[in-house]
Amino acid sequence: MAIADYIPVLLRPALLLTTAVYHCIMTLLQNPTLIFNLSTLQEKSFARLWSQNGEAMSVEMPGPTFALLKTVSGTVLDVGPGSGEQLPRFDPSIVTIMYGAEPSINLHAGLLKNAEKAGFGGKYKALHCGGEPESLIPALAKAGALAESKGQGIFDVVVCVRVLCGVPRPEETIEGLYKLLKPGGRMIVCEHVINPWQESGSVLARVMQVVYTVLGWPFFMGNCHVDRDTKKYLQEAAGKDGWASVKLEYVEPKTAIPFVVGELVKRS
Ligand SMILES: C[S@@+](CC[C@H](N)C(=O)[O-])C[C@H]1O[C@@H](n2cnc3c(N)ncnc32)[C@H](O)[C@@H]1O
């Protein structure tokens, strides 16, 4: 890669961060008292950013993401679906039921509208919860999804697209999601991660991740972290027995927002 090629890929996140700061300011101008409630300000300004830009940010997705989403079938958990920008990528005819665990209530109207538009009809259930066990399990219980589990897991597929960067305690949350998979179930992921600068990545891109973090990326981007070692957490979630198979690939590993895309299959 030539030096000139690095500039757009390293600076692209700066454009996104600037847009996020703009939405935060606009949210604050509309409701100045939110300055005293920073977590609500963070949630509302991210919901504003995502409602207005999520669709444009989903036209292209890294690597084989679209092909993987087309294979999703059976009983499905979509963690952090936002306002459902990925829903047109699924094939609803092979999905039995899909639960969307979305903690931002401000995104639910768009989510349900997009589920209807994508042809899910009554097969889509939006849950007002996060993917972390203490939030997800009670919401699944309330929706009646745990009734058939018998301790064996309930989902054929768990989908994590651009969400594990923002969940609390990622290792524990991913382990919790692993437990919810049926034997032979698949976890499909498209997640941005810490730059793999010691392998195929770039030191400069890793430095830029630190710069964006210092500039407030986690606050303005709805608690998103650019430096999580999610690939490692995913691999370790299956414990000492390991996954039956792991197929994860880096996409754009030399950038400040490198992705890991692929699937992990639980042992039968
Ligand atoms: C960057 S958006 C991605 C939306 C969608 N998955 C996509 O890629 O089009 C991240 C989403 O994760 C949600 N989110 C934030 N914290 C979460 C948590 N703890 N559990 C589940 N989702 C969460 C946000 O509300 C937001 O909708």
TrEMBL record:
Pfam families named among the record's database cross-references: Methyltransf_23
InterPro entries: SAM-dependent_MTases_sf, Thiol_S-MT
SUPFAM superfamilies linked: S-adenosyl-L-methionine-dependent methyltransferases
Gene3D superfamilies referenced in this protein's UniProt entry, alphabetically: Vaccinia Virus protein VP39 (3.40.50.150)
The protein's name in its UniProt record: S-adenosyl-L-methionine-dependent methyltransferase
Organism: Lepidopterella palustris CBS 459.81
Record lineage: Eukaryota, Fungi, Dikarya, Ascomycota, Pezizomycotina
